[in-house]
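Re: [ENG-882] Designed sequences occasionally contain unexpected residues at chain ends

Forwarding the minimal case from QA. Structure tokens:
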């Protein structure tokens, strides 16, 4: 039985979060897991932490970080001035996948979005993640749009 704790990430969680981000086929090539962490991670954490429309979640099980996601609340004019929740950087420790941790994380995130009055929750996922696509569809998400990205930083 899971005994999960959902909380706002603290600076001390940063190494565990970066490790989770690197713990898959795409992340291992994008993230830098060294001690100490590169300064860019600290700067990003500080920006997220001070923004009231950002929530960096860590999920613990018996004192170990087993999951993370970033939840962003976006005000907008479309849809009658509706707010959106944006869920990104979803990771569950590879050794813990299949234990419904991801589903619990999304239940938590959707509750937060409802509590903030969001009319819509959206996310992006890489085309190379078919398991994630099936997971999101099982949760009720629909692939209704085409997304485009433009990489402005050749070092990322």
């Amino acid at each position: 039985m899971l005994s999960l704790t959902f909380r706002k990430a603290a600076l001390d969680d940063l190494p565990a979060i970066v490790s989770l981000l690197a713990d898959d086929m795409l992340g291992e090539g994008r993230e830098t897991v060294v001690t100490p962490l590169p300064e860019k991670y600290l700067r990003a954490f500080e920006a997220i932490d001070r923004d009231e429309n950002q929530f960096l979640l860590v999920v613990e099980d018996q004192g170990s970080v087993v999951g993370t996601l970033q939840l962003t609340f976006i005000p907008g004019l479309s849809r009658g001035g509706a707010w959106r929740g944006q869920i990104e950087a979803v990771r569950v420790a590879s050794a813990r996948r299949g234990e419904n941790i991801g589903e619990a994380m999304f239940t938590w995130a959707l509750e937060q979005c409802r509590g903030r009055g969001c009319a819509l929750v959206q996310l992006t996922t890489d085309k190379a993640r078919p398991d994630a696509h099936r997971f999101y569809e099982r949760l009720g998400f629909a692939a209704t749009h085409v997304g485009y990205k433009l990489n402005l930083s050749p070092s990322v």
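QA comment: On inspection the terminal residues look reasonable. The beta strands are 4-8, 54-61, 64-74, 83-92, 118-123. Proposing we downgrade this to a documentation issue.
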